[in-house]
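Module 6 notes. Inverse folding takes a fixed backbone as the condition and produces residue identities as the prediction. Think of it as a translation problem where the source language is geometry and the target language is the twenty amino acids. Below is one complete input and output pair. Work through it position by position during the lab.
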């Protein structure tokens, strides 16, 4: 992200020794909400006064791909202001949409047709939006928890931080870390920004996904066949996945299965897509987050 200060826009005030300064920045995004997170956290004025960001306001959405960002700073209170190696953090526990094509087990839905509820001709198994040609699926909201940890460092510390970030980026925690259990935290990387002549602001960004235990999956059970046929009354068995770590991926294979009312029937009463196997994949390597130097 490119952030450019409009230098001739600075306005300073001095109220009983408490100095404040308002600066305007151009941020290369059309999204005002995205722009609000930018703007240096600190400002060194003429090499003398150290200012700390106190308020951010997006004032204007321009038409050429840039937003105008107004940032208010105040001189640092030595007793409580930001200093090198001081920490701050924020957790965002909102939601995001994801596209799904199947439910985990076919008991999660009720099937209707003109004859009533759960009639044979309406059974589509675990598929959502299934037609004769495709499975359309749908968008649903899922938890999307993010964690940002901010720390200020001297320039001399940045080389080591840069190496640590490269070593851990796109990996998950190999042990319990801060509020979360092993495997729940994915490190996305860090943003570094020079502030004044000495201090560097480093934002460490993480995504959180909860571990899950004892996941039940209704799976086709070959032992329930009678005369080589699966009966509609009983053809699956519940299989338990003991644990899925947050950033592991649990996926399924299914196949269409003809269902009969009895083992002597010649014609099936319906056909349903049934899970035949489940697979737990680890998409990210684990790493020791302690190398980031932001605590355990």
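Target side of the pair, the amino acids:
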């Amino acid at each position: 992200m490119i952030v450019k200060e409009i230098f001739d826009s600075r306005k300073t005030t001095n109220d009983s020794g408490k100095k404040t300064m308002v600066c305007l920045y151009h941020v290369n995004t059309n999204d005002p909400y995205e722009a609000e997170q930018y703007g240096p956290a600190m400002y060194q004025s003429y090499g003398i006064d150290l200012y700390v960001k106190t308020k951010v306001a997006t004032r204007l959405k321009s038409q050429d791909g840039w937003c105008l960002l107004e940032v208010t700073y105040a001189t640092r209170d030595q007793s409580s202001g930001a200093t090198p190696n001081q920490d701050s953090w924020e957790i965002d526990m909102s939601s995001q949409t994801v596209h799904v094509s199947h439910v985990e087990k076919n008991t999660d839905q009720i099937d209707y047709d003109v004859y009533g509820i759960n009639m044979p001709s309406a059974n589509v198994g675990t598929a959502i939006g299934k037609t004769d040609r495709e499975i359309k699926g749908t968008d649903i909201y899922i938890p999307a928890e993010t964690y940002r940890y901010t720390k200020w460092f001297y320039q001399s510390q940045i080389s080591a931080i840069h190496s640590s970030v490269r070593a851990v980026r796109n990996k998950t925690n190999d042990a319990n870390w801060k509020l979360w259990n092993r495997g729940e935290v994915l490190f996305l990387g860090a943003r570094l920004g020079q502030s004044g002549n000495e201090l560097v602001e480093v934002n460490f960004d993480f995504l959180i996904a909860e571990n899950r235990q004892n996941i039940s999956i209704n799976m086709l059970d070959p032992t329930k066949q009678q005369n080589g046929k699966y009966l509609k009354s009983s053809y699956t068995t519940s299989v338990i996945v003991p644990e899925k770590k947050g950033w592991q991926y649990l996926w399924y294979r299914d196949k269409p299965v003809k269902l009969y009312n009895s083992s002597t029937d010649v014609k099936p009463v319906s056909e349903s897509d049934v899970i035949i196997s489940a697979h737990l994949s680890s998409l990210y390597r684990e790493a020791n987050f302690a190398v980031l130097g932001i605590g355990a």
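Reference fact for the lab report: The CA atoms of residues 254 and 274 lie 5 Å apart.
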